[in-house]
Amino acid sequence: MGKETNDFIKELRKGRPAAQQRLLTDYGPAVFRLIVRMVGQQEDAEEIYQDVFVKALTKIHTFDPEKASLQTWLGRIAYNEAVNHLRHSRLDIVFMDDDDLAADYDYEPDDTADDEQTVILLEQAMQLLPAADQTLLSLFYYENMSMKEIAYITGSIPSTIGSRLSRIRKKLYQTIMQFSDK
Fold it and tell me: What residue segments make up the domains of the chain, in order of their start?
């Protein structure tokens, strides 16, 4: 951990408002995207988002930079808070793409009919996946997290995450092939 990061963590542990604001500014958007992808409802996501940062700020003394980066640690808190919310509300995790989240970057998909059809089939196939599989795909592809980071967030091990992602990709391929045969 660099000196600047170490100083930042010290400031957070002292409860400094400037450090707390920086935490929200630097890490808030990614945390919010993860929560929205999991719960699907903006209102619920906003409530969970607040809970995540309240918990993070009250538990910052437990953060161990040897185990995970600050972003990954916050991702784990967000993941657990969203799962707890979903358990209590008995809802399924919803997979939403970045278009639905008004992503910060401009992405123009290729306008060819084949590409559009593939995207539609992929989105349909993803909706059929179990909630846990949708979350893994979101963390890996949309949040660009490593398998090690995802393992930390989900309480698993990296090799298990790699195997699960491989199986999920195979399921998606098979489902898309079934859709395209119809």
Answer: 3-89, 113-181
Return the closest-CA partner of residue 63 out of 123, 122, 19: 19
Integer angstrom CA distances of residue 74 from 16, 96, 120, 123: 18, 20, 32, 28
Residues above pLDDT 90, as percent of the chain: 26
Prediction pTM value = 0.66
What CATH class is the domain 3-89?
mainly alpha
Kindly tell me if the per-residue pLDDT of 92 is higher than 60: no
Task: Compute the mean pLDDT over every residue in the chain, rounded to the nearest whole number.
Answer: 80
| Chain CA centroid to CA 113, Å | 30
Q: Dig out the tokens for 149 from the structure.
A: 């980071």
In the predicted model, is pLDDT for residue 149 greater than 80? yes
Which candidate, 54, 134, 137, 143, places its Cα nearest to that of 86? Answer: 134
- Residue 105 pLDDT greater than 60, yes or no: no
* Residue 182 DSSP code: -
Quickly name the fold that domain 113-181 has: Arc Repressor Mutant, subunit A (1.10.10)
Token code pair at residue 109? 């998909």
162: Cα within 13 Å, side-chain hemisphere: 6
Residues with Cβ within 8 Å of 152's Cβ and at least 6 positions away in sequence, in order, are 67, 68, 72, 73, 76
